Amino acid sequence: MSALAGAGLVGLLEGVTVVDLSRNLPGPFGSRMLADLGAHVIKVEPPEGDPARSLPALFAALNHGKATRQIDFRAPDDLARLRDLLATADVMLDSFRPGVLAGMGLDAATLHARHPRLVMVSITGYGQTGAWADKAGHDLNFMALSGVLDQIRAPTGELALPNVQWGDLAGGASMAVIAVLAALHAAQRTGRGRHIDVSMAHALHAHLVMPQATAALLAPVLGHPPGAGEDMLNGGLPCYRLYETADGRHLAVGALEHKFWRAACAVFERPDWVERHWQRGIPPGAPDARALCGEVAARVRGRTLAEWSVRFASADACVTPVLTQAEARSHPLFAERSGTPWATVA
């Protein structure tokens, strides 16, 4: 059963059939979201299966609520059966490299000749054309080339290796779902399907909205483009930063607006900090901002994470503990929703 079955969302895509030819993470997670919303998803796998089957927990998380068909993409009879299946579908999702669909007779011209309303969404690493189109890549490569990975640094400058696959999920799956829904809407209005390519590297680059804007804003102030620990949201502001607690855990202080900073200062018992805020004229990376970062760090180190969590529990200050996976699962925020659905009907 879908994680959203009890949340009132499962019927939103009722009557929509999605044939998913993708493997690994981006496509399957995207089609899982479509299944959560009520689409009938048919997962097509080669005889050897999806590589994610070697990790049963991952495969189950990505593919609950889907039907499965096995197709040998090298067998003409199987490809003919797949084309028949696609003639009855609304959406086809794939993650092949450019040119593979055409080699199997699954290109847009062939499929749209038989089924003009079919929505086709391809998730690729670098797009359908250009010098990089045929190159292999994974999440880490897409993040590295897009400029996103360079933004994921500690304030000290150390580059991080994130354990959440932002290229696959934000650049691939989520953008593919947006493309599917937009193309379905257009097909309903015009009777014509589309073949949309989602390039994960380009989609990630499009997510650099805040760093690009703040770099242009702060470079004249700092005398250089902001680096690690100098930008508005990566450590340059005392009110928006990670602070270590007495027990080696971390407190996430996200009091970006002055009203939240005022509330945080009340919990910190430091009313003298209230006006030392970027909305009161102290820019990121300025001497007073750096000094205040040290003062807040010293204050936070005076108590354990549990103590700060209790103190901030009733404060509307945008200050929260940094939880482990296990702690997050048992936190009331997630425990109160069965199956941890990602959306509900208001």
Q: Would you write up a description of this structure?
A:
This protein has helices at 26-36, 56-63, 76-86, 100-103, 108-114, 139-146, 166-190, 200-206, 209-222, 258-268, 287-300, 305-312, 325-330, 332-335, and strands at residues 17-20, 40-45, 66-70, 91-94, 119-124, 195-199, 240-244, 250-254, 319-321. The strands form two sheets. A six-stranded parallel sheet has the order 3-2-1-4-5-6. A three-stranded antiparallel sheet has the order 7-8-9. With 346 residues, the protein is of the alpha/beta class. It contains 14 helices and nine strands.
Keywords for this entry:
346 residues, alpha/beta, 6-stranded parallel β-sheet, 14 helices, 9 strands
Write a brief caption for the model.
This protein has 346 residues and is α/β, with parallel strands linked by helices. Helix content is 40%, strand content 12%.
Q: Show unreliable segments.
A: none
Structural class: alpha/beta
Mean pLDDT: 94
According to DSSP, the number of beta strands is 9
- SSE order, one letter for each helix or strand: EHEHEHEHHEHHEHHEEHHHEHH
Percent helix, as a range, is 25-40%
Overall spatial form: elongated
What amount of the residues lies in strands? 5-15%
Largest sheet descriptor: 6 strands, parallel
Rg, rounded, reads 24 Å
Alpha plus pi helix count: 14
Q: Could you give the topology of this structure?
A:
Blueprint: E1 17-20, H1 26-36, E2 40-45, H2 56-63, E3 66-70, H3 76-86, E4 91-94, H4 100-103, H5 108-114, E5 119-124, H6 139-146, H7 166-190, E6 195-199, H8 200-206, H9 209-222, E7 240-244, E8 250-254, H10 258-268, H11 287-300, H12 305-312, E9 319-321, H13 325-330, H14 332-335
Parallel strand pairs: 1-2, 1-4, 2-3, 4-5, 5-6
Antiparallel strand pairs: 7-8, 8-9
